[in-house]
Amino acid sequence: MLTSLVSGLEAKGLAVAVYSEAAGNPLISHVEQGVRAYKAHDADAVLSIGGGCALDVGKAIALMSHHPGNILDYEDDKPNGLPVRADLLPLTISIPTTAGTGSEVGGSSVVSRDDNHQKIIVWGAALIPRHVIADPDLTLSLPPHLTAATGMDALTHNVEAYLAKNFHPICEGIALEGLRYVNRYLVRAFENPSDREARGGMLMAAMMGAIAFQKGLGVTHSCAHALSTCYDLHHGLANAMMIVPSMRFNYEQQAEKFTTMGEVVGIQGSASEKGQGFIRWLGELCRTLKIPNSLSELNVKLTPRLLDVATQDTCHLNNTRACTRADFEKLFQEGGAHV
Amino acid sequence: MLTSLVSGLEAKGLAVAVYSEAAGNPLISHVEQGVRAYKAHDADAVLSIGGGCALDVGKAIALMSHHPGNILDYEDDKPNGLPVRADLLPLTISIPTTAGTGSEVGGSSVVSRDDNHQKIIVWGAALIPRHVIADPDLTLSLPPHLTAATGMDALTHNVEAYLAKNFHPICEGIALEGLRYVNRYLVRAFENPSDREARGGMLMAAMMGAIAFQKGLGVTHSCAHALSTCYDLHHGLANAMMIVPSMRFNYEQQAEKFTTMGEVVGIQGSASEKGQGFIRWLGELCRTLKIPNSLSELNVKLTPRLLDVATQDTCHLNNTRACTRADFEKLFQEGGAHV
Question: What gap in Å lies between CA A293 and CA B193, rounded to an integer?
Fold first, then answer.
């Protein structure tokens, strides 16, 4: 994929240099290496191709190649932080090869500190890539376990954005429709990787989730961030492990919204049957996608640090039901219990 | 409302001049008068307050005060037309006092030729007002018949945008959620004009409809445009008269989408019960809102010109089911038949 992209650009007379050291949960040092590569090449544009890691690192490279200071100065909501300036940024192009993160249509870049793997979120409207090429063909070779994990990331974005406590009916509409797309296409893409229509539907669902989560996210993401920080879990897999317990936690305070989500995924019955049915549907989806059944299978231990990181994460501040450290403890105990 | 706005601005040291000659279905001559008033005042901003007429004329005044040529040169999709240039436009602020048109968040301005009342649509992304003040309090004094007519406009935007044939899942999600808001709030606002929550919900539904209809509209709007051109009918009322026959016309080709719309407004039962139930729900809504039962009550006659204008209108080109002149004839015969 990369080879044909590079040769195609070179055939058009463009000088291309490749930086491809970032992988997994990206680190600030990956960004710094990328900035050095950008400057060494005297580049004037950043074209990112890959999953969430590549796209997030690409945004951060574009930012730090043309802004003063340290990337920590651009952390979202940081007191006395520095502004992301549209007029300083180079041309940015994102080409997603997974359908999950939606980073290609978002203004955030999530990278981890090298010392303690704490995730930091950089945000600026100007960081939204100028151009996006969302081509289902580029996701056809994604293996089923990554289709599952990234697809569950898209699903979690849509569900948590819909439930987040901020007022934003436009994002809620986009989130519900994104959920409808996940229901229609995720299992199809998992079971038949070459189903181009399903791949396209999931790319769309991923973009809708990322647009919708401007409204906010919730406890699932705070748990997932802690699991990635402490155990380097894949972000989408971490969301998949935590979404069912998190939704059980949220249900009572937002029963009406669960009814609506149940309707969207086709559950029949009374209001509460639809709402509870939605949580069952999530669990069945996790089993179909072969998401592990417990966090211990992934060598996760319920440590004080795991609880610290989850509690300090800001995503759950937008969860409608407040979540205490004791609540997080219970959520992690139930992680992977999809039934 | 206007007096307190003007005195408030003057108290801040701003020099204000009022142009308030436009009303009903606005004419190009209203825009021309407004441009003269703008230039006579040596203005540097356009603040529009009112319903769709005021907001659309405000956009056109902002455009034509700072662009060369005639407004007809800026008609949407006109061959060799002139471009709307963001860098030429003055500051624009829109304050809606109805919840229907959604013009406050849209890039179009619809005005009629003085000679034949033919509607022309000017479009440019830069025409979207820079600032919007959507305050439910400003709609509390709207009388019930205008609450009904403008509310049906918002409803029609959401429904036709959802059904339009272009591909745009984001707009479809926004449209469905806008429909949910109309279902929740329109009758409440009609029956109790001082219900602030319902007024706010309808303002939101109107904005969502206008955002969603970037995807396209359909036959209801082509009928409504013809009724306004030939009989000066209020645009929202014209949509209300035509939506039930138009949806009967659309049902078979898009049964699945009708099922979804039925679900959104709370219809129970099988897929086809929900879909057919949605059309019945529309008709019951029209009766609750005291929309007239036949076009002849409004002195409309089925003339060749009415059919010409509807057929030549471009909105129905985005209707999923193609609509011929004979189809339009049948639709107008059924206009106002809500049952």
Answer: 54
